[in-house]
Amino acid sequence: xxxxxxxxxxxxxxxxxxxxxxxxxxxxxxxxxxxxxxxxxxxxxxxxxxxxxxxxxxxxxxxxxxxxxxxxxxxxxxxxxxxxxxxxxxxxxxxxxxxxxxxxxxxxxxxxxxxxxxxxxxxxxxxxxxxxxxxxxxxxxxxxxxxxxxxxxxxxxxxxxxxxxxxxxxxxxxxxxxxxxxxxxxxxxxxxxxxxxxxxxxxxxxxxxxxxxxxxxxxxxxxxxxxxxxxxxxxxxx
Length: 238
Ligand SMILES: C[S@@+](CC[C@H](N)C(=O)[O-])C[C@H]1O[C@@H](n2cnc3c(N)ncnc32)[C@H](O)[C@@H]1O
Prior knowledge:
This protein is an alpha/beta fold. Helix content is 28%, strand content 30%. The chain has eight helices and ten strands. Strands 3, 4, 5, 6, 7, 8, 9 and 10 form an eight-stranded mixed β-sheet that branches. The protein has a two-stranded antiparallel ribbon with strand order 1-2. Helix 5 packs parallel to helix 6. It is globular. The chain binds S-adenosylmethionine (SAM).
């Protein structure tokens, strides 16, 4: 995977379209594609996209009819990169991108109809080893710490009756994230599931073997390949 500035072709929902990406930008993944497919946005909705990366899901939400979309990411150049992508795709007047931690940069008192919660969520050791994240940082030692911190803040920005879209997977402490999500949402429904092969170099790494031994992550075998399972959940706040 290259981490240079360049163009990424989005082939998911409403694609194909090109996205500008820098050395700090997360390249949209299979999870991004699953999330985009799961996303339900009604005409006029206010949407928050936390962990927005290139802004891809914000752009999809805007094109699906959102009236206003706020994307937040910790990447240092998210405002420039995601704003350029929104302009390129004709949704600059609907989208606002902010740099910072989780919901912290959002306008005070904002009440969203939809929150997409796609922050980094694999164990730090796998993030460092895989190179999937330009920052090389994951979601904490078990991959669950950052998603749980995000879930703890969601009730401040999601209106009652609002929808939350959450990716999880067996490449993190999924049970801990789901326990937290179930304590917040009256209804939590799995809307997508996909088995994804783990590159052999990674599945045989000392880090992955130790995390499996510690039962933080859970891989299945198909022939000589190891796979992890990604899921997308829709939570309803009552
Ligand atoms: C799995 S990527 C998803 C990016 C984007 N949603 C997509 O589908 O391409 C997770 C994103 O979370 C961002 N992130 C990590 N820690 C964060 C934090 N504390 N607050 C906001 N964003 C964060 C990362 O920079 C990264 O862009």
